[in-house]
Amino acid sequence: MEFSTIWLFVIAAATLLIIPGPAVFYIMARSIDQGKKAGLVSVLGVSLGGSVHVLAGAIGVSAILMTSATAFNIVKYLGAAYLIYLGCKTLFSTSDRTTSEIPKAPRKKSLKIFYQSALVEVMNPKTALFFLAFFPQFISPSAGSVTVQFLLLGTIFIILAFISDGLYAVLAASIRKRIVGSKASSKLMNRITGYLYIVLGVFSIFASPQKT
Q: Which chain regions cross the lipid bilayer (predicted)?
């Protein structure tokens, strides 16, 4: 691939990543609910999930997802149900966050957040649709293997997304530090986080192969 094409892709991808999407809102919800560490762990999980979509797109699995209404609907509704479940679980949580210090998540909890975040991203068909719609604009069959080009662009995108998502996680965590410390703010955080999860779940229900 020509350097000018790659550079153009970087500019376009960075511009798109500035605009918060479902993954960013999910990461911010984690940071507000559980702190910066949980948010950054979520960033790692989302990056892993995005990598799965890149690999799937490169070998044509995502194309099957696009053409099969049944496969698309299964992934779509499972992902939506999982997000709504997380939202409801957070809204009805009885945990008390009245301490002024932000608790440190134990290792097992961090691993759980990592796997949950990866699962949420893997189960998000919008990611597959976006990659299939966006990447081909910068791929040329005459430039060599289409699969290699797709993987190259995917790697660049995941790196840029990791940086962008990390910044959003830190920003959300700073907001959390200001509101943690009272029962009222605890309830507010739970509500914000829970509703964000539910909105993301409802949003994913309306994803369709015709939309990007």
A: 6-28, 40-65, 71-92, 113-135, 147-171, 192-209
